[in-house]
Amino acid sequence: MPALVASDLDRTLIYSAAALALTMPDARAPRLLCVEVHESKPLSYMTETAARLLTDLGDAAVFVPTTTRTRKQYLRINLPGPAPTYAICANGGHLLVDGVSDPDWHAQVTARLADQCAPLAEVQEHLLRAADPVWVRKHRVADDLFAYLVVERELLDEDWVKELAVWAENRGWTVSLQGRKIYAVPKPLTKSAAMREVARRTEADLTLAAGDSLLDTDLLLAADQGWRPGHGELADTGFTAPSIRVLPDRGVLAGERILREFLGVVRGA
């Protein structure tokens, strides 16, 4: 039976220039590989060593990129190694099979959201009304499933985020602050549900996962083994569990460490 590796991407395996956290002297910095270009500019990176590890992992396990990104945002990433058969996008709202969203899975998800939480329109209207234009730069809706704000982090009133989280909780939604983005996501929209579906289809007998944000919590807890880096929302809150390994590594070198950990388990299984 194959092992399934479901990993978050941004700030887990791939990193923007601002998130690299390179603390060593410049001459000792790792060589980087650009894995995403947006509007003709390099946007996301991993180390060249991480690229080799990911290629090896893709040969040894069912690797499933697992992201809150929309399908469009995910598809501009060019990861090294074998092209993944499956990918989880929009926080589980879309299950891509060979790059195409599975319509049956998406229909199941949208039916669950309609039944279990407040509608997206209500949440979007609240965000438009309540957010302060002083620190909001963009309002966005992702694949008609959830909403997020792009903000000026240094101007953001983080008490407002806490108040938003309480408001959202009462409507079946959750709030996550990641870098310059505030996400409002329906609670039934989860990466873990999509991971379980891929595990069922592939008959995987071992599931591994990694992630750094609040939106990765359910994924990490659902996997047989999970890893989180020393940065991000989960590190800031001290989140852990018996099946989760907390790594001290931060920034792009954490991505490299996570891939080493994945490979070590897969090869030893």
Automatic annotation (TrEMBL):
Keyword Hydrolase: yes
Keywords of this entry: Hydrolase
Hydrolase among keywords: yes
SUPFAM superfamilies attached to this UniProt entry: HAD-like
Highest rank taxon of the organism: Bacteria
A GO term, aspect molecular function: hydrolase activity
InterPro entries tied to this protein: HAD-like_sf, HAD_sf, TPP-like
Name the record gives this protein: HAD family hydrolase
Source species: Streptomyces tibetensis
